[in-house]
Amino acid sequence: MTPQVLVLQHVPWEKPGRILTNLEDLGLDYQILNIVDEKKPDLPSFDEVAGVVIMGGPMGAADYDRHPGLKAEAKLARAAVAVNKPVLGVCLGHQIIATALGAKLHRGEAPEIGFGPIKRVDQHDYFSMWDKQIDVLHWHNDVVGLPESAQLLARSNATKVQAFRAGSALGLQFHLEVTASLLEEWLAEPSMVKDLKAAGGSKSQLREDFERCNPLLEPFAEQVFSGFAVRCRNYAQGLAKAEEEKAPKDPVIS
């Protein structure tokens, strides 16, 4: 079987967006699953997974009682990092990876929703092209600490860990994946609009901010997600080569 990237989605509107575009650009196969409420989810064979993407969602990363599939996601993230398989987490996914690697999860002082600046803390090839500060789209209540031995990449005034690298895993608390069309899907979802209004925002303001910030966010997203896609492709090639070497060779007839 062709190695594929496994994308774990938690709610219909929090889609992979730009992440999928970059996987498709490299011809990578992928599968999108929602296992959040399954105690024993039917996942593809771990050996056939070339990378893992864990998307956002309104649930808490440790809410295993109401969403038992989150435990399987944490276990998968931990197993992937252990064998250097590429992992990408966005918002809830970022928190799932961090807690799976031992970081603490807690409620932020206030929701961080809408566009606002993050500051680069450390240089990494994922984050090499942008200046010290850039406005990104935030949409979260919970925050996480930094996993042990992880590299902190970015922070904001309200959230100390906005991005980190831990081995083969990249966690992003913010939403680089959102395109203009995906933003409209968010703004058609009543629960998202309720969050936005509760945080003092409005649809019109969010649309204006997206238009203003997107010219800088597009190349930044391209760098981050194409970097992840390349890592998945390299891992897939490694899996295919290992499979080839295991295959029985035809006898040589002299």
TrEMBL record:
Record-annotated Glutamine amidotransferase domain positions: 19-182
Key words of the record: Glutamine amidotransferase, Transferase
Domain of life, per lineage: Bacteria
GO molecular function: transferase activity
One Pfam family named in its UniProt record: GATase
InterPro entries the UniProt entry points to: ChyE-like, Class_I_gatase-like, GATASE
GO cellular component annotations of the record: cytosol
PANTHER family: GLUTAMINE AMIDOTRANSFERASE YLR126C-RELATED
Name of the protein in question: GMP synthase
Source organism: Bifidobacterium callitrichos
